[in-house]
Write a structure and sequence with these properties.
The protein is about 65% helix and about 5% strand. The protein has 24 helices and 8 strands. Helix 22 links the parallel strand 6 and strand 7. The longest helix is centred in the first third of the chain and has 27 residues. Belongs to the monovalent cation:proton antiporter 2 (CPA2) transporter (TC 2.A.37) family.
C-alpha cells in the first residue's frame, strides 16, 4: 500500500506540474515514471497489468466510434504504407549518418539493427494521439478519423512484425474468431437488457477484456487489436456513445499506469538522453511526409497538416519492437532506454505543438499550393448550408432538440452542423437538415456558401473547449449575428461570456429551472 501511495503521489505531482506549464497531464506522468525509476523506487506489483487494461479499454472505446470501412480508403491505407516505407528509409539514412559521425551507441551497429530501430521509430502512438484528439473533441472530425485509421493499420503492421519476430504464429483456432461477426447479435441483445449506469460499464469492460483482449491473446493474436475489434463490432449499437463516455474516467485513470511504466524501463545516462534528443529531429520530417501524402490524396492543406501534426510522435509500439529486438539479440539493451526516452520526449514535444495545432496548421498551409475545390476529397469540399436563419453546431441530444425547437416552434430555417458521420445519417433520416462539417475548423466559414443570412449560431457541442474554439472561429470569420452556447459548469459559462457569447445556458441549471416549472404546473393543475 505504501508503494501504491508513493506512485500515485508522484504521478499526481507530475500531472499538476505539467498542467502548470500548460502541457497535458500525461507528460507529467511520463516524467514521474522516469523520476521513480531514477530514484530506485520499489517495483509496484500489478502496474504492467493495469497499464495493459488501460490501453485495452482505450482501444475498445476507439472501436466503438470506428467505421471499419474507412480503413480501405486510399487516403488511409495507401498513406500508411507509403509513409512507413519513407520513414524506415529516412530512419536508416539518419541513423547511418549518426554512425558515420561516430555518435555513441550507434557506431558499429549493422544494417539490420539500424533497420529495426528505424521501423520502431516509424510508428505513431495510438494512446497519445487518441488522448490528444479526445481532449480537443476531434476524434470524429475528418482529420481525426484519418489519423485513427492510420494508427490502426500501423498497429496491425506492428502486431504482424511481433508475431514473426517472436516466432509465435496464430493458433489455427483463430479462424473461429470470425464467428463474432454474426455472433455480435447476441452481445447486442445482452447489452440492450443491461440498461444504463454501472452495469453497462461493467459489460463493456467484460467484453473488452474477455472475448477481446484475453481470447485474442490466447489464440496468438494481439490482445490490443482484439479489444479494438470487439469495440468495432459493437459500434452500431445505439448506446455505443454512452458506453464510451461511461468508460472514459475509468480508462483515463488506468492509463496513468501505462505512462508511468514507460518511464521505468531503465535509468538513463547522459549518452542515452543525448541520442534520444537527436532522434527528435526526425519528427518534423515524419509530420511533413504525412501532410504531403495526404495532400496528394486530395485533402485540404489544413486537414493534411492537422493530421501530420497529430501523428508527429513516436509510439509505445516502438518500445515493444525494440524490446523484442533485445530478446532475439538484434539490438543492445541501451537502445531500449534510448527509445523509451525518445518516445517520452516526443510526447512532450507533440503535446506542446498540438496545443496550438489549429494555428500552426493554418500557418503551414502556405507551404503547399491550394487545390481546385472540385478536385478535393468529397469529405473535404465546400459546405453549402443554403439560405438559413440559424446554425446549430453539435447535434447531440441538446443540439438536436434545439434544432427541432427553433424550426417547429419559432419557424426559423435551421441547419445543423455535425462531424459524426453516423449521427449525420441518422438525423437526416429523421428529417433534419444537416451538413457534415467540423465547427472548430478554422476554414469552416470560408468553405460555407450562402451564409450571409445567418442571424443566430448555437454552440451545442458537448465539450467546452470545442464550443470555445467554435466561438473564436465565428469571431475570426467576422460573424455579426447572435451566439448562444451551452455550458456544464459555472466557470465554463463565465469563460464563454468573457469571449463574447451573447447567451449562455447552464445545462444543469436550465434543467433544474425546467423541472421546477413542470412541477409547479402539475401542482397548479392538480394532475
Amino acid at each position: 500500500m505504501e508503494t501504491l501511495a508513493l506512485y500515485l503521489g508522484v504521478a499526481f505531482v507530475g500531472g499538476v506540474l505539467a498542467t502548470l506549464v500548460r502541457l497535458p497531464p500525461l507528460v507529467g506522468f511520463l516524467a514521474a515514471g522516469f523520476a521513480l525509476g531514477a530514484a530506485g523506487a520499489p517495483e509496484l506489483p500489478g502496474l504492467a497489468t493495469i497499464a495493459e487494461v488501460g490501453v485495452a479499454l482505450l482501444l475498445f472505446t476507439i472501436g466503438l466510434k470506428l467505421d471499419v470501412r474507412s480503413l480501405v480508403r486510399p487516403e488511409i491505407w495507401l498513406t500508411t504504407v507509403s509513409h512507413m516505407v519513407l520513414a524506415v528509409a529516412v530512419g536508416i539514412g539518419f541513423l547511418g549518418l549518426l554512425a558515420v559521425m561516430g555518435m555513441a551507441l550507434v557506431a558499429g551497429d549493422g544494417l539490420g539493427t539500424l533497420a529495426l530501430i528505424a521501423l520502431a521509430l516509424s510508428f505513431s502512438s495510438t494512446v497519445f494521439v487518441i488522448k490528444v484528439l479526445e481532449d480537443r473533441s476531434d476524434a470524429t472530425s475528418l482529420y481525426g478519423r484519418i489519423a485513427v485509421g492510420i494508427l490502426i493499420i500501423q498497429d496491425i503492421v506492428a502486431v504482424t512484425f511481433l508475431a514473426i519476430a517472436e516466432g509465435r504464429p496464430p493458433s489455427l483456432w483463430a479462424v473461429a474468431l470470425l464467428l463474432f461477426i454474426p455472433g455480435r447479435r447476441v452481445l447486442y441483445a445482452i447489452w440492450s437488457r443491461v440498461g444504463h449506469g454501472e452495469l453497462q460499464a461493467i459489460f463493456g469492460v467484460a467484453v473488452a477484456l474477455g472475448p477481446g483482449f484475453y481470447l485474442f491473446e490466447h489464440l496468438g493474436l494481439s490482445g490490443d487489436v482484439g479489444a479494438l475489434v470487439m469495440g468495432a463490432l459493437l459500434a452500431a449499437h445505439p448506446s455505443a456513445g454512452e458506453m464510451s463516455r461511461s468508460l472514459m474516467t475509468f480508462k483515463d485513470v488506468m492509463l496513468v499506469a501505462f505512462f508511468l511504466e514507460i518511464g521505468l524501463h531503465g535509468t538513463p545516462e547522459p549518452q542515452h538522453v543525448a541520442l534520444a534528443l537527436v532522434l527528435l529531429l526526425m519528427l518534423p520530417l515524419q509530420a511533413a511526409a504525412y501532410a504531403v501524402l495526404l495532400w496528394t490524396a486530395r485533402l485540404r492543406r489544413r486537414t493534411a497538416f492537422l493530421t501530420g501534426l497529430a501523428l508527429g510522435n513516436y509510439s509505445e509500439f516502438g518500445i515493444i519492437v525494440v524490446a523484442v529486438g533485445v530478446e532475439v539479440g538484434m539490438v543492445d539493451d541501451d537502445w531500449l532506454i534510448v527509445i523509451s526516452l525518445a518516445v517520452a520526449a516526443s510526447f512532450a514535444l507533440s503535446a506542446a505543438v498540438n496545443r496550438r495545432g489549429v494555428e500552426i496548421a493554418a500557418w503551414l498551409t502556405r507551404f503547399l499550393p491550394p487545390k481546385d475545390p472540385s478536385r478535393l476529397h468529397p469529405d473535404d469540399r465546400v459546405v453549402d448550408i443554403g439560405d438559413v436563419d440559424a446554425l446549430v453546431m453539435g447535434l447531440g441530444r441538446v443540439g438536436s432538440t434545439t434544432c427541432a425547437r427553433l424550426r417547429d416552434e419559432y419557424g426559423l430555417r435551421v441547419v445543423g452542423v455535425e462531424h459524426d458521420v453516423n449521427r449525420v445519417s441518422s438525423l437526416q433520416g429523421d428529417g433534419f437538415e444537416v451538413v457534415r462539417a467540423d465547427a472548430t475548423d478554422v476554414e469552416f466559414w470560408a468553405r460555407v456558401k450562402r451564409a450571409g443570412h445567418v442571424r443566430l449560431a448555437v454552440l451545442a457541442m458537448p465539450f467546452h473547449n470545442a464550443n470555445l474554439i467554435a466561438l473564436s472561429r465565428l469571431q475570426d470569420a467576422g460573424f455579426e449575428g447572435q451566439v448562444a452556447a451551452i455550458a456544464r459548469y459555472d466557470d465554463d459559462a463565465a469563460e464563454l461570456r468573457r469571449h463574447g457569447a451573447d447567451a449562455v445556458f447552464h445545462i444543469y441549471g436550465a434543467a433544474g429551472a425546467e423541472l421546477a416549472d413542470r412541477a409547479a404546473e402539475v401542482l397548479s393543475t392538480g394532475r
